[in-house]
Amino acid sequence: MNLTISGHHLEVTPAIREYVQNKLERVKRHFDQVIDIAVILTVDNLTEKDKRQKAEINLRMSGKTVYVESLSQDLYAAIDTLIDKLDRQVMKYKAKVQEHGHDAIKHLPDTFEPAATA
């Protein structure tokens, strides 16, 4: 699995990098078929009162690419909500993949009748 963490108008410190990696462990624990993760952390200085911290992630899995973004006043809060959103989407995809093979069993006709014994 490749992990890329980059910053836009922000220097990615080792503390931020470690925080993101620790949070991503939760997603990797739920679904291990992750190919590539790209995290972009952005600071937009619109006005002094209205600083926005943005975290976005592109997660490539076998069969699907998931894109999630989160905005907050605090970068760590943006990362937390980003991981929560990502985890929900990954769990939803995992459930969909696991149930895919079971659909055929539901649609089988109920024609089985036990043989009558005399």
Topology:
Elements: E1 2-8, H1 14-30, E2 34-45, E3 51-61, E4 64-72, H2 75-100, H3 103-106
Parallel strand pairs: 1-2
Antiparallel strand pairs: 2-3, 3-4
Helix pairs in contact: 1-2
Structure report:
The chain is of the alpha+beta class and 118 residues long. The chain is built from three helices and four strands. A hairpin with a 5-residue loop joins strand 2 and strand 3. Helix 1 packs parallel to helix 2 (75-100). The chain is elongated, with a radius of gyration of 22 Å. One of its GO terms (cellular component) is cytosolic small ribosomal subunit.
Shape descriptor: elongated
Indicate the radius of gyration in whole angstroms: 22 Å
| Helix and strand pattern | EHEEEHH
> How is the main sheet built?
4 strands, mixed
Helix content: 25-40%
Architecture in CATH? 2-Layer Sandwich
- Please state the average pLDDT score: 84
The stretches of 5 or more residues where confidence is low (pLDDT under 50) are: none
Give the strand content: 25-35%
Pfam family, one: Ribosomal_S30AE
Organism: Rugamonas rubra
Keywords: Translation regulation
Subunit structure: Associates exclusively with 100S ribosomes, which are dimers of 70S ribosomes.
Q: Descriptors for this entry?
A:
single chain; 118 residues; alpha+beta; Double Stranded RNA Binding Domain; four-stranded mixed sheet; 4 strands; elongated; Ribosome hibernation promoting factor; HPF/YfiA_ribosome-assoc; RHF/RaiA; ribosomal small subunit binding
